[in-house]
Amino acid sequence: MVTREWVLSRNCSLSPRQLGSAYAVLCCMSLIVAAVFTLSGAWLILVFTILELSAVGLAFLLYARHATDREHIALADDCLLVELIQVEQVEQFRLNPRWTRVESPVRRSDLIGLESNGTRVEVGRFLTEWKRREFARELKRALASAR
Fold it and tell me: In this predicted model, what pLDDT tens digit does every residue of 111-126 receive, in sequence order?
């Protein structure tokens, strides 16, 4: 039975499918403008349009690959399950909630450290510094009440 559950993720406003649709509209509009200029004799506009759309397409591809990245943390009676999902690769860690130690971030760039029986996992990469500290306190309280 899961007693507490947290999902830490990016605040992405566009899904990969929506991003693909936006890119298709952008390509159509830019290529129409470039075609008009090309028919008027300014063929160099088409070359720059293709370079621009290639650069934007690469940036959108990188964004879309990481749009679904997240961290899923579930606290049950006998297990603290931590799932790290990045670029569709899933890493799972099962920690003993009675022996798990939570290390709060010290510096701004530090993540929250979870350590149990020699296994160390860092979480909180999608949270701001202030939210990381708040989440570390909340997780410590949840683990203490589970003991």
Answer: 999 999 889 999 998 8
